[in-house]
Amino acid sequence: MISQHLPVLQVVVPLLFAPICVLLRRHNLVWGVVLLSCWASFVIATLLLQQVLTGGEIIYAIGGWEAPWGIEYRVDILNSFVLLIITGIASIVITFARESVHKEISEDRIYLFYTAFLLHLTGLCGVVITGDAFNIFVFVEIASLSSYAMISAGRDRRALLAAFRYLILGTVGATFILIGIGLMYVMTGTLNIADMADRIRDVQDTRTIVSAFAFFTVGVCIKFGLFPLHYWLPNAYTYAPSIVSAFLSGTTSKVFIYVLLRFLFTIFGAEYAFDTMHLDIILMVAALLAIFSGSIAAIYQDNIKKMLAYSSIAQIGYMVLGISLVSVTGLMASILHLFNHALIKTALFMSVACFFFRFDSVSLKDLKGVGRQMPWTTMAFVIGGLSLIGIPMTVGFISKWYLIVAALEKDWWWMAALILLGSILAVVYIWKVIEVIYFQSTEADSQPVTEAVKFQEAPLSMLIPVWVIIFANIYFGVNASWVTDISQQAAVYLMGGQ
Question: Per-residue pLDDT for 94 more than 70?
Fold first, then answer.
């Protein structure tokens, strides 16, 4: 039955459709192929999550070769949830993408862009689903190389420099990850993650494993942009085509945080990572610095995409802060924020893509009074901004609430206060945008023009996907039981409760 092969289809479907884009080349046909592939991947991820919830962990041996000799895919409550996030965001972004891609990418590059999009999705899905440590590195490289291509695909020449910086730092991160995996292989004699987790206990006190731990942790933190290893992120998100910014912000950082969770809790174990190596203290300091440095930098930006990029650095801080608490509630908050931040930031970047589609700019000075011309887009941005701040009845509130609860469980009132202060800083930079788009006007606004000229809303093909994800921000903020239940199960699983 095809249901037995869903784990491998999760990777094979986008991988097989990618070369078809190169063969077809016609823009609308290629977009249709990518659209079909992404939604098929989302359906597969949904079915996998359903199977895990009802039947437990899925183990799929590639080619019938059992581990540790063969490569296996393992699907549990955590990575099935992350797969749902990745494929869901990819599906909604590609539904939105057609008009935006035609606007921002040269016609002769569009089919190559869509090919890179599918390869990136392939890499992300492979990283999450594989049960083999070396295959994680292979899929990391597929995702990384395709992301460099997507970032540089835009018409803005600054995207080339941003992609080059990302390439340099991304290569350093990937090399560190490979060194870490290699050192672990030397000491355990296996690349299968489950097998490695069993064998590494006997050699944890060796210098080789300490070095592997350090290399791998730093490499992964570079890849998701944890302060102070985030130098590549702001320009990559700012100068990439808008659709790329939306896709990367909603998926890539989430995948690498998943990788960190998988290795810290599954392979090394919480006791070794946090009691022996004291990584919790390092992560906590880095996370708090990320929250405040990212938020403060966002306040001073006039380019909305760069503002959202620095905001992403702060939001990554919240996810890592939950990990550093080393508790079920803290992990639950981090996993929740993987889901919630994907909804929030994708919605915001897609709204900004609508601004760029109409005005060829995302600078605040060029968007004065745009709320009167694009009421639906600006309303979507405002709701996304409220969710980012953490206003009740939005998804952003749910994650921050559980993060505060996790801090209070340890009687760390000071940390709860810092989390609230970080949200107040988010109010400042979101209000800065709202003030410009609603309450400031240009000289042109005083001229007598018709309503037809003033009304320049984005096309429905862009507005509908934006509002779908905005409604998701509200729905999962009001009815969060499904997401919180899955996040709690995943947190208990990581902490060894299953």
Answer: yes
Estimate to the nearest angstrom the gap between the alpha carbon of 246 and the chain centroid.
9
Q: Which long-range contacts (CB under 8 A, 24 or more apart) does 354-361 make?
A: 354/380, 354/458, 354/462, 354/463, 354/466, 355/304, 356/100, 356/103, 356/104, 356/242, 357/99, 357/100, 357/103, 357/458, 357/459, 357/462, 358/456, 358/457, 358/458
Phi, psi of 278 (to 5 degrees): 55, 35
Model confidence pLDDT, tens digit, residues 433-485: 898 888 877 655 555 544 444 567 888 888 999 999 999 999 998 998 899 99
Spatial separation of the C-alpha atoms in residues 366 and 437, rounded to whole Å? 9
**Tokens linked to 115:** 């090919």
**Strand, coil or helix: what is 61?**
strand
* Residue pLDDT, tens place only, 319-342: 999 999 988 999 999 999 999 999
Tokens of 304: 């909305």
Specify whether the CB–CB gap between 37 and 28 falls below 8 A: no
Cis peptide before 392 (omega within 30 of 0): no
> Is the pLDDT confidence value at 67 over 80?
no
Least confident of 134-148, 228-242, 347-361, 433-447: 433-447
Paired tokens of 414: 């000071």
pLDDT at 58: 87
Q: Give the model's pLDDT for residue 119.
A: 93
Residues with Cβ within 8 Å of residue 114, at least 6 apart in sequence: 21, 30, 31, 33, 34, 101
Q: Considering only residues 452 and 237, tell me which one the structure prediction assigns the higher pLDDT.
A: 237
User: What is the SS3 assignment for 440?
Assistant: coil
Q: Is the pLDDT of residue 370 over 90?
A: no
User: Which among 331, 353, 346, 332 has a CA at the least distance from the CA of 387?
Assistant: 346
Domain edges within the chain: 314-498
CB neighbours of residue 112 within 10 Å:
18
Per-residue pLDDT tens digits for 22-35: 888 887 888 899 99
Strand partners, 75: 58
How many CB atoms neighbour CB 498 within 10 A?
Answer: 12
- Residues β-bridged to residue 146: none
For residue 130, what are the β-bridge partners?
73
**How far apart are alpha carbons 399 and 494 in whole angstroms?**
18
Contacts of 459 (CB under 8 A, 6+ apart): 99, 357
Residue whose token pair is 């409760």: 497
Decide: 115 and 19 in contact? Cβ < 8 Å: yes
Note the pLDDT of residue 455. Answer: 64
